[in-house]
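Intended use. Records such as the HTH cro/C1-type domain-containing protein entry shown here are meant for training and evaluating sequence-to-structure methods. They are not intended to support clinical decisions.
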Amino acid sequence: MQDQTPHYSGIAHEPARLAVLRGLQLIDGVAEPSLDRITRIAQRLFEVPIALVSLIDADRQWFKSRCGLTAESTPRDQAFCNYTIEHDSVFVVPDARADRRFSSNPLVTGAPHIRFYAGAPLTVAPGIRLGSLCLIDTRPRDFHPADMQRLAALATQVVGEIWLLELEKALGTGLPASLPPALDAGSSLVEQRITGAQLRAARGLLKWSIAQLASAAGVSPATIKRIEAIDGEASVRFAISQSLRSTCEAEGIVFTGRYSSGAGGAALAP
């Protein structure tokens, strides 16, 4: 029997992941020839009937590029990619009908009759995975380490194309591009992290306890206490900092100043 628990409920850094996905405005957009070329290459390279660039939104997976499939989206609770975005490595299901997690999935029991699945996560920042480049076959098959490396390399190309699309959009509008920290020559991971002073200010404005913020952001109370204990940047992972920041921003908080500076603060948007 298939596990009926929604698999996305416990995904780490989910608020930050969704914030990045929506900020890039990839969902429901037009087809992108650069991504279509990659899915066509993947389909031919691995000799599968279906290759997709799948983006995982709050309640659905949407196919930014699809080769061999007519559907534009599926409900998120049916998405194999929910498992892919939990890890940095390639996720493989050799035979979905023999896997209790997927054996009663409508995408297995009905069209497109998935038996084999392999997905490489689209990682745009540490811990932030927007979806996957995935392969689907209607028959079981093996997937070797060399195959995983090739698929992961193609997924890296997809991520590169996503940022190029963002740059192109920014150049056309005159607005700054939402570059990933690792590719932004004008900033660093440290400069992107929230400070203790900012976090204390944000909680004060929201009238939230540490426990309330921890629950909303999916971050441990001990981590929040450690960040708030100093005025400057705390040594926490970038994804944790982004999750806290995006959770507060979703409630109307606007952060001011450099994140790495104790002088930075927070304000409640009017």
